[in-house]
Design goal:
heterodimer, A: mainly beta, Immunoglobulin-like, 4-stranded antiparallel beta sheet, elongated, B: 10% helix, 44% strand
Chain lengths: 168, 124
Amino acid sequence: MTKLKLYGVAASLLALTTYANAAEVPITGNVASKCTIFTDTEGVYGNPSPDKLSTAPADGGVLPVVRYDVAIADYYKAKISWPNNFSTSPNLTDALAWDGTVEVSSTSDVGMAGYEAAKVEYDNHTEYDLTVAGSTWFKVTSTVLYGQGKSLPGGTYTATVTAECIAK
Amino acid sequence: MKKIITAALFLFASNAAAHEFTPTYPEFSNSFVDGVLVTYMELFNRRTDVEYYELSVFDEEWNPLPFATPDKLLKINYLERRRIELFIRETDKDKVTYICSMSKLLSEDVISSGINSRICSKVK
């Protein structure tokens, strides 16, 4: 091999080495649309009077709190339902009167300020259009009255809130 | 700046448990059986209080439709991610609108007021 050719090979190797040293390692990512439901706080019923159970703090209860995270705006709606029956309870012989409300308790974006005014309520369901990406916290109040001035029998009472995220 | 810090504190301080079901808009393709279509869903369980999830398929009016998966009631451990194969009849292709996963709470795990989570993807 002539000297000229050797210089050529050396130059090519140098060029390649330099290229390898200068190479950038790309990091790619993809944010897909998705909805995640977080159970922030499980509620607890308070028993402010013998015939009433309530999750309201004023009644000694703890409000259940659900957080919705949506990665991309306007892909999902939230549907939250307060309970209208007990999952477990002692034997009850009289009627129960259920009531509840769902409210936005906190948001991660000022654009979500209109959620509360735009909510749709029917039966025991409340729907919110998740038109802004980010996190929204919802608090659920649930109350139940038993019979006509009757005391609730002693025992454990449990009920469940249903939090749904439905693709639009 | 204050708002960002507050939001970050909220996100990291809360002892949250989550349920995730993707993709948002699944698509069906031909399966290895004639007349049967398949799609793939992914379920991620970050709820410490839930081990079981139930799958369901609905039409536009929320009427249940028949479908097949290896398990309709899935046992998914905390922090487990599961890829789910879901089959439908080709004749139902135009009817299928929602594919949902719902958490199933065990009665002994609910203290007073538990939270059921349900996420529904939409077939367009």
